[in-house]
Amino acid sequence: MANLNTPLINELLEQVGKHPDFENWRQEGKLPATIVSQLCQPLKTDPRFEDQPKRLSQSAIHIVDYIYKSWLAIQKRLQQQLDGKMRWLEMLNSDVELVETSGSSMEAIRTKASEILAIAMPASDSDSSQPKRKKGKKAKKSLSSSPDRKAWG
Questions:
Q1: Would 6 be classed as within a structural domain?
Q2: I need a labelling partner for 51 at 20 to 30 A (CA). Which of 34, 103, 120, 141 fits?
Q3: Structural domain harbouring 121
Q4: Which residues of the chain have pLDDT under 70?
């Protein structure tokens, strides 16, 4: 049976990869639900796969679907990571590019950045200097051991 199923799987893998919409699927990170079974329909009449039982062709469809869905999900995640890194690199302009795009001198940019930091830093320092109340076991113990609680229990 492997002699019939493996060539069918390989043929389906090849046809999905050569499909005209494959690049769209790769960018979306999804494979349409029925595309593999649609590609398998003409292969059922192919002399190489004619005698193959239906359960084996269904198995081949599920395997190819699983392989491509997994691969496309990984490719989408990798593309998102790459896009994020490219955005980060675009934000990290060199000093010369920054001066050119802003139309200001480097000293003016540094002064403005220092002013912004001075404004932002005290606000974050005052938030962290206030002690935060911690609710833990002590609060629960005092509630459960109160005299009124025992009277009701």
A1: yes
A2: 34
A3: 95-126
A4: 1-2, 4, 93, 123-153
